[in-house]
Write a structure and sequence with these properties.
Chain lengths: ~150, ~120, ~375
């Protein structure tokens, strides 16, 4: 997962304000939070910054994978323990006999499900962060291998 | 001067082994695959230890115990004990098995399981 | 299709398989199923490809010429296969070992000398949950989410943050230890015996460290608390077994956290057969055996070099579904089936609960057939 600092290092660092931000650093922050688009940085599309732009685009691929709730899953770091599935308050409420009781989640479209040994995002529509705009971090908190992250915490 | 710097980096640590779930999943698949080497030929040290002795995450190190040695990839993580080195349980940890091991930088390549197997006969 | 996962001793029975999609199994279990056809063993005699009948015949010849045999492994074999292995052991007067250090405690559980319980009971009733010397997040990934700390149970409806108290004891900050957050404590120790004595002192109203006193206070809130002990604890318990048993009877229950799939089945099998558990490593050091039958195990991937070096000098008969470091060194390799994937039978979960396997495929040869053929050949 790229940090705002990683992105900043590759920006023109001129604080030209063309993107509407006061500094390149704040642009980097908003880029990761998906509040700004790379195209907003006009100078970056000049030929002299092409290499750097490509690097940033590569970094942002992870961010692109982030769901509407800011949830990012890195499957390579997931061991498939299912802690996130069982602790999810929505799963517990909607599927008390399944996920709430420790079994594989029985909802047809759960928020998360373990498939082929790693956690996959199925439907964030049910997530409290999406529906109620609650800042819930239960899934991330109980993942000791950092396979789950939230954009705003990066 | 360079040799002296290298000498300073040689460090003796207590060996702790552990069952690593990611390593187990590739061992169950195929022990002669590159993935097995990637997950098994690893020695993990605590960030404080790394800082004290100047080790970098991802560098290849020579790990020795008694007259035996193997080249492993060094990783830095808080899951390692502060005063020890952590190696996932596999033929690598078995080959190096002892109470204490020494770690030092090397230019060599990572030892393969087949190279280790030759030393058993 | 429902599947019982044989990736570790959790034997999770809620796995769904649809073609090449495995749902709910962890990385280890899903991999066991999905990679079943990779690196399969072939029948070999002295490294040369043979048919399986010739390999079995050669194994019989070797056994007939042997003075002292050891049977090692069997953790991935079903209870049915273990039973046949015990008969074979009696026929050969062979030593038997599975390489697990849980033998003494398992026998105490079977003799009811130490209180134990089931994982279902833990889920429904347990308040304080100890993980002592075990990093279950790695060794048995679903242990905590499926059975212990995280799920809601009958008397534990309010979830892990209120209805459970987690205690992790280890020499290092393992992934499991990182999960000890709210309503939880991680105790780092290099000396299990000392910590056990400290707990006993605190339970009797004596002086102890802050963390220990806090745990003891929590222990008194419930009459159902459980200690899961792993390899780290067992190795640390050189002379303190008696004190540990005393601590467990004060706390509540003990359940082994031995990840080896059917290790508890092995202990029950030898217990019922009346065969004492041997220590294979000691046998190798003392040069007490000339032939070993290795069943579904790869000691070269688990035994110290100095011991394993002696192993490769023996007549080695390896029965395994997969190619292993040990099979590379074997005189005879006999391929077998992956228990639970390609052959059925029963196994014991880490808490001694019997589980019926649900194989998805069928195999011509499995441990039962191979061991039977060898036994008949003798």
């Amino acid at each position: 997962m790229p940090s705002p600092m990683d992105i900043y290092k590759l920006l023109p660092k001129t604080n030209c304000k063309l993107c509407g931000e006061q500094t390149c650093m704040s642009f980097a922050f908003k880029l990761i939070k998906k509040e700004k688009k790379l195209e907003d940085c006009k100078p970056l599309f000049e030929p002299e910054f092409e290499e750097q732009r490509k690097k940033i685009e590569e970094m942002l691929k992870v961010v692109e994978k982030a769901t509407e709730t800011g949830l990012v899953v890195n499957e390579d770091l997931c061991i498939g323990c299912g802690n996130c599935i069982v602790v999810c308050p929505v799963h517990v409420y909607e599927d008390p006999e399944g996920a709430g009781s420790g079994f594989g989640v029985r909802l047809e479209n759960p928020i998360l499900r373990v498939e082929n040994g790693v956690v996959r995002v199925v439907d964030v529509g049910l997530c409290r962060r999406y529906k109620e705009k609650t800042i819930c971090v239960a899934c991330r908190e109980n993942c000791p291998t950092s396979a789950i992250a939230f954009l705003e915490e990066l | 001067m360079l040799r002296f710097a290298k000498y300073l980096k040689k460090v003796e640590l207590k060996l702790v082994t552990y069952r690593d779930g990611f390593q187990v999943s590739v061992a169950v698949k195929d022990k002669f695959d590159d993935e097995f080497v990637e997950k098994s030929a690893v020695v993990i040290i605590h960030p404080d230890t790394a800082k004290t002795f100047g080790f970098k995450d991802g560098q290849i190190v020579k790990v020795s115990s008694y007259e035996r040695c193997a080249n492993l990839r060094l990783k830095i993580s808080e899951i390692a004990p502060e005063n020890g080195a952590l190696i996932p349980k596999s033929i690598y940890s078995c080959y190096l098995y002892s109470d204490r091991i020494t770690i030092e930088p090397t230019d060599g390549e990572i030892t393969t399981p087949n190279e280790l197997l030759e030393r058993y006969t | 299709m429902m599947w019982v996962c044989t990736g570790c001793s959790c034997l999770c029975d809620d796995i769904e398989i649809e073609g090449d999609v495995v749902r709910h199994a962890c990385r280890i279990g899903a991999g066991l199923y999905l990679n079943r056809s990779v690196a399969r063993a072939e029948p070999l005699i002295d490294g040369k490809r043979m048919d399986i009948d010739s390999a079995i015949e050669r194994a019989v010849e070797i056994l007939k010429d042997s003075k002292s045999v050891a049977i090692y492994g069997l953790n991935n074999s079903t209870l049915e296969a273990q039973k046949i292995a015990m008969k074979l052991a009696k026929k050969l007067s062979a030593y038997v070992d599975n390489g697990s250090k849980f033998g003494k405690l398992a026998e105490m559980i079977l003799r009811k000398e130490i209180p134990s319980t089931t994982l279902e009971n833990v889920k429904d009733y347990a308040y304080v949950i100890f993980y002592w010397g075990c990093d279950v997040h790695n060794s048995m990934p679903r242990h905590m989410s499926r059975y212990t700390y995280y799920p809601r149970g009958k008397k534990r409806q309010r979830g892990y943050e209120e209805d459970r108290f987690l205690v992790v004891v280890d020499v290092r900050r393992s992934h499991t230890a990182m999960l000890a957050k709210k309503n939880a404590v991680f105790i780092k120790t290099d000396d299990d015996g000392k910590l056990i004595r400290e707990f006993l002192t605190a339970l009797n109203g004596g002086i102890a460290s802050g963390d220990v006193l806090r745990v003891v206070k929590e222990l008194k809130k419930s009459d159902f608390n459980v200690v899961f002990g792993g390899g780290g604890l067992i190795e640390g318990l050189s002379n303190e077994l008696e004190e540990f048993v005393k601590l467990v009877s004060n706390v509540g229950y003990f359940v082994p956290a031995d990840y080896r799939t059917n290790s508890m089945g092995f202990f029950k099998s030898i217990f019922e057969a009346g065969i004492p558990k041997a220590n294979f490593e000691d046998l190798l050091i003392d040069e007490k055996v000339d032939t070993a039958i290795i069943v579904g195990s790869d000691p070269l991937n688990s035994m110290p070099f100095e011991v394993a070096k002696r192993l490769v000098k023996l007549n080695l008969i390896v029965i395994d579904p997969k190619v292993s470091f040990t099979s590379k060194m074997a005189d005879v390799v006999i391929p077998s089936a992956i228990s639970g994937v390609e052959c059925g039978g029963k196994m014991l979960r880490s808490d001694f609960v019997e589980v019926e396997l649900k194989p998805i495929f069928k195999s011509e040869f499995d441990d039962v057939k191979v061991l039977k053929s060898i036994s008949e050949g003798l």
